[in-house]
Amino acid sequence: MLKESVFRVTEVKKVSAGRPPVVDLMANGDIHLVVNTAAGGTAHQDGQRIRRGALEYRVPYIATVAGAFAAAEAIACGPMEVVPLQEWHRRPAA
Length: 94
Known about the structure:
mainly alpha; Rossmann fold; 4 helices; two-stranded parallel ribbon; about 90 residues
């Protein structure tokens, strides 16, 4: 379903599924967001390597389909502003 959206989506191979694996693509700067859902007999080992690669190469990582849809919806809303949590909970001066 994400492929049908306005985002450019490319399926890539997991670590155990052949070349080029997703971690190599992250290292090359070819991947900007990872959506990895567990499937198959090597999902645990692949997941560990993919999470480690995402952390090492500073690539955002999403592990659920629901999370992917939420992220896509937020990105589609346009530019975002980063606001410190303290700003949201700032109490008015007495």
